[in-house]
Amino acid sequence: MPRITSVESPGCPPLRAITTDILGLVKVVEARARPAGVAKVVETWGEPDASRAILVASLADRAVDPVLALARKNGVVELLNPLNGDSLAAVKASGQEQTDGAVENDPIVALHLFKKHAPDLSTLGTFLACTEKGKASVRSVAKENTVAASDVGPSSTWDVCSTGKLQFSSLDAGENYAMFGGNGMEVNLWDITSCSKIWSAKSPRGNSLGIFTKPWFTAGTFLCKDDHRKIVACTNNHQVRLYDTSSQRRPVISVDFRESPIKAVAEDPDGHTVYIGTGTGDLASFDMRTGKLVGCYVGKCSGSIRSIVRHPELPLIASCGLDSYLRIWDTNTRQPLSAVYLKQHLTAVVIDSHFSTEESEETNSKQPDPSMVAEATIRREKKKKKNIYVEEEDEGTQVVDGDNNDGETVRKEKKKKKMVAEDDEGIRIACPDDADAKTVKKEKKKKKNRRVAEEEEGTQLADPDDSDAEMHTTKRIKSGEKSKGTKKKSKKQQVA
């Protein structure tokens, strides 16, 4: 079972990293929050295909027209736009004469995309590719022939080694010298402009028993940007060696680090520190001035580390490997800042140093979502309707009176007038002529007189002599109440 340690990560500063894996996918990881945020997968380019697995990647990190180069398993070098993932060109690394079987037996193991622009700006990029059998080639890709996938301009090919297997290549900051090394071959230095070897290392002396170890170099880099004569090479025998090409062929400093082979190395801009990653997931930094271990990084990886890259400005490094994690570390505290699980075995990682959160926010604002646009239009329409209704009300109040209080009173008076007008209209509809209205009133009065007369006759029949009874009966009839006395009199009336 792999060893896994859980360490809390505080988050990393704004960062953009691009990773490649064994299924041919390119994944973009970004951290946008300030001052520290969680790194997340933003985009995934390509389709999973094991036959097009990405072996090596290189980024021409420029502020204008950056290009990303990918070396695939089928022997094709593909140029992409690292901002949106558009394919710019696809070129055969070592010519069109190779068959599929030859490509599988001699895959690309090293790739470097030159950062310098062509003088006439007619090319997309120039790259150096090296195969496992030691065939190195420098090719340029023109903008006009990107569809035809043909290479134009200056191109050269040479053999780096006759025996052994090439495993790594590295170029200096000036991109004039290249270093090569591998299994069964010593480290050697080449001049790219003349395609000639200028230096070759010599194996160290044997041990106390007189046994010489077979050369097997797995990674290497130039220590200083200004000086191409100092190089650092790492071996499969867990050694870190420093060579000075101007003084001697044997290593000046050789340091052992634990017991696993070293698979990746990266230099620091300070000119004396290097970062190494082993096959068991250990990450450490060395000071090559003295050869002492500066420290190991907290949080062991659970798989072999295959790529390490140092940010040119921020104090952090990014590492990836066979544990399918992209990890970002702080070089000052050697603490992990963030870790992203990317599902596949990772082969390489590069960092876009010109990334800024302001640019990403501007692009997002320029291309809003359609749902947001629809909501905004609906809100605007509602606001327009409300404004129109308010303006109509304001116009009505201004015609009546300029003050708001007067407008309210006027509105109430208008409502009352409307009610009265409606009542009058109803009456007019019922009785359109005045004469008819008078006749109706007279009939109503006659009916009332008849009722009163009937009531009076009823009281006289009940008891004509009793005046008090008349008074009581009239009052009771008006109030609509009945008492016991009236009930008795009504019985007497029935007897009479």
UniProtKB/TrEMBL annotation:
GO biological process: ribosomal large subunit biogenesis
WD-type repeats, residues: 298-339
Name the UniProt record assigns to this protein: Transducin/WD40 repeat-like superfamily protein
Region named Disordered: 433-496
Keywords, alphabetical: Repeat, WD repeat
Segments of skewed composition (Basic residues): 441-450, 485-496
Record's compositionally biased regions (Acidic residues): 454-468
Family matches, as InterPro entries: Quinoprotein_ADH-like_sf (IPR011047), WD40/YVTN_repeat-like_dom_sf (IPR015943), WD40_repeat_CS (IPR019775), WD40_rpt (IPR001680), WDR74/Nsa1 (IPR037379)
GO cellular component: nucleolus; preribosome, large subunit precursor
Biased composition range(s): Basic and acidic residues: 469-484
Pfam families membership: WD40
Source taxon at top rank: Eukaryota
